Sequence to fold (313 residues):
Amino acid sequence: MPEDTQIRVSYGTAIVLGLVNARQDVAPTTAYLLFDQGCIGSCSFCPRANGNQQSKRLSRITWPEFSFTTVLARLTAEPRPFKRVCLQTGYNPATTTLLKNLARQLINSGIATSMTLSPSQTELALEMLDMGLDHIGIGLDAASEETYREHKRKNWQEDWPALLRLLNKAGERIEVHLIFGLGDSEEAFAERIQEIVSAGGKISLFALTPVNGGSAPEMSAYRRMQAFRYLCEQGKTSFAACIFAGGRLTSLKTTGDETLLSALNNGEAFRTSGCGNCNRPYYNERPGQKFYNYPRALSANEFSQAFSELLLD
Ligand code: SF4
Fold:
């Protein structure tokens, strides 16, 4: 990789690295980088779709550009500011060689490195894991064939079986990114979570950030999906054990004797889910707004409020 290659860095990450001089309420605990030299994807919700490299945004985050050499030097300066780097990528097979080169440098630096890839890149995901990447996030985003066609504008019949094969081979190192708010019912969304967990994967849960239109999901519905995601991954509930009415989750049953309150009491369900140390502050909300995904531990009051928002039977 030429020394002057530019890479985008999330604004919060740039503050921690001392590349931007500003204050922030909650700092990221993973360094988020963005490598996108023209994404050929056309996701309805993404400001950088269809090769729009001019957009400085991904989700609601701003990503200023710096030289990769400078960023790497800051990431590896002792004491190291981050325990994980996440290299988020635009989907463009023409840049795979460059991407591998970047990944190799991050792996060689000794920082646990995650990378996000498109569901069309499951073969590349395996190759990257073999190279030494720690985890891969796959942007499935939509939970059903209909919403996948509408919002990802890709072929579910090809991509979903390919993702299942990847989960079969390396599920414990795969985080499937799912966005709630694209039109999937809670029932369809929870069923997809169950299928991914049953196949050995984990879920990185997002609320739709309506930067391209649409609307953010109702908080109470999002809380129910968070609770289901967490308990399902913990093996403390299952899709089959829950009750839905008109697509809405009405009763979240825990398996065993534990009450729902006790099973959720540590607040983890309402925090950002994904790779270790990934907290993604302000991906889904503006500073000062209530968190869809808490990027830090919840206070007792915050937990009580989040729990009360579940509105379950
Ligand atoms: S869960 Fe976080 S660190 Fe892991 S791939 Fe997704 S955004 Fe990156």
User: Anything to note?
Assistant: The pocket of iron/sulfur cluster is lined by residues 30, 86, 114, 116, 135, 137, 175, 177, 204, 274-275, 278 (CB under 6 Å).
